[in-house]
Prior knowledge:
Number of helices: 14
Keywords: Membrane, Signal, Transmembrane, Transmembrane helix
Oligomer: single chain
Shape: globular
Protein name: Two-component SAPR family response regulator
Structural class: alpha+beta
Helix content: 10-25%
Distance between the termini: 54 Å
Amino acid sequence: MFRAKISVNRIQKRLNYLFVFFCLSTPAISFAQNNGLHFYGQETVQDKRTSLDLTADEEMCFDGDFELSFDLYFTPKFRDYYGYVFRIIEENGHNIDLIYDQKAFNTQNFKLVIGDKFSNIAFNLPEKLLFKSWNHFTISYRKEFDELVFTNGNQKFSQKNAGFQNSGCYKVLFGANHYKRFKTTDVPMMNIKNISVLDHGKLKFFWPLDEFKGDEAFDRIGKRRATVENPLWINAMHTNWKLVKSVVITGHPSVAFNQQKQIIHIVGPSELYNFSVGDENMVKLEYASKRDIAAGNQSVYDQLSGRLYNVFIDQKKASYFDLPSGRWDKDFERPTRLTKYWHSNKFISKADSALYVMGGYGQLVYKNEVQKYDLNNKKWTSVKYKGDAFNPRYLAGLGVTDDGNTAYIMGGHGSITGEQMLNPTNYYDLIRYQVKTQMFKKVYTLKSPENDFAFANSLVIDSPAKSFYGLVFANNKFKTHLQLIKGSLTSPTYQLIGGYIPYLFHDIRSYADLYWCPELKKLVAVTLFTREDNNTEIKIYTIEFPPNGLGIAIGEARFPIHNIIILTGLVCLLIGATYYFYKRRKIAQTETLLSIPAHNKDIPAPKQYQTSIHLFGNLQLLDNNGDDVTKMLSPLLKELLLLILLYSMRKEGGISSNKLDELLWFGKSEKVARNNRSVNIAKLKGILSNLEYCNLNKDSGYWKIDIDFNHVYIDYFHYLQITKEQNQGTKQQILELLKVLQRGPFLSNIEYDWLDDIKSEVSHKVIDLLLNYTTSADTVSQPEFIIEIADHVFYFDRVNEDALKLKCKALSQLGKHTLAKNTFEKFQRVYKAIYTVDFEKSFQSIIEA
Length: 849
């Protein structure tokens, strides 16, 4: 019997780790796994440093053995690294701290502190691990031996006589904190993800920290809430572009990139600006004399010679900058008319130390010239290329491989004849150019998109992955935006990724480019716009690499067979784990039903559905097989679905075509809006075909989704049924409402202007129903239930005074006075942060109210 128990515990523990593995690996299948929380530390003022409290609502309590693990790496390129990674504080005040001190004399930078003494657990990690990869840390307590065991992924340490109680409750804090005498603002510039807590070998909590915004994080097991101050979510860093510099320069500057030093050079008529992407610092160098640089000039940095060149193609001139003298080696003549080579592409070939310039546009003519400037003999020649057609174009993207022998040109705008008046169009072909053979080879042509786009000037080539990154934008409008695109170098597929960059486009006044910083693992975007006053606005943006995908790939997806084998194996493991947990849960449920009081047995079990749509928490669609098909929805389709679904289920009974056009295609002509609507309605019907008993139609003259609620579960419909009666609410109603709310607030990760009123209505109804119940119910006999109600009110209103009174009084009734006081103090901080004034009532007055 004893052996059997040991075996089951081992299996349970392994399956717990398997669950964490799937939590980590599943997002990586759909897009890059970029979860985690960046902590602002010593390089930031104290008020802006990051704290993570896993025990904001209540402490973690264990009866003996427990384990805390997480992944960590330090943000590189900062001067000072000192502070608390975590603090674990027992209810009796006993503390366990992990501290990092880069100036430790014995080179053991990480130190584990127990109480007010250093333990014998101390170690160092090599820089290549600490600053360039995630490191898995684990601290576990073994009650039988009163021993702490710590691992850092490579080494294992232990400390006897840890001093914990046989059973106790703990505060668990990462980074800065404001907790009693343990408060600190000493934090290293670090990143944390995948925090898991095990109780007797069983996974109890798991925070992947995969949020995009907000100051809360929820664990995947029981939705336990953690709070964050001054967060910078790594997911957001890989999704949203960050504006790091904005500057205005007189005239017509151009930009170049020094990849080795990760410096953007901004070449102006009177000065050179050097912007360091690493420390986001800009330095201005005055020229010895002012020079004429005309609109349409371009700049390029030669990594081989270390020279910065400024080029004006019309005059066949390339000038380089001499840093010691602060001079350019030659000047340009004052042009008599605008350039004939707007937005031409360029690259420097390592194969023959030459600058190549391709295409361009000017004087109503698109170009397909290939011009070469030999950097050694300083001569220009026209290249007589061979191979497939290189149609005249501009607004294409060009990237070159590391060896400098192969250039890829993607897309552009032009015409077969080169004449602007003869059927100009956007191109979507990928063309490869070989320097040594001077030959063009067409690789493929993308299917024409629904909305045309052109490219920023450069592509970033990822040769090992056989892919490229570029920036695309709508070249048929002035107020547009840039968005990152990831494409294949071998097959006609691409994916739009990352957020938007505002971009004003007028081809003779605008320019955009994309660069890659390998050491910093960032992509950099630069935009230029010359205003009518002859001043040019230059903006520099960065995004962490790899950027997050926002939708499914477009084109012919090819899935290697070895990936299918791996995924099949993972699915088999998951099925086995799910079956095991299912059996254990059924046993546990049976045992629970045998032991619970009889008056609870009348609560009906929720009906099980395969097909469901969840609107509370994150939007989720499960098809007839229970599979998640949410990822099939593009951002536009997601909004279209919610509009029709919500208008169908509410009193409106559907939504008109005119209303859809007004909300989704405002400013478009009637024809364009109608075409867009028809295309996207068809796409949405295709996705809904996976959800049986959900039918999108316009039979009544309004677009609506007919749903058989006997076969499809929609939590918002269930919510409407619960709240339709205007009464104080029965306990059964409240229990059903809490089941709906357990995934989180209504559409918590979605923001639309038209949705604000609906969200507000839901919040008011939920709060009113929950609080109305407490006015008539016997709150004294059910303090745990009252705490749960108060917590759900706080989800919708963080400074609700009624919820504060309910929770503090219930916690005090349970004897948890410390938690009650912590709840009050946290409420005070949030109240002041929102209203900028102190909460005037005292803790005692709240308890006695």
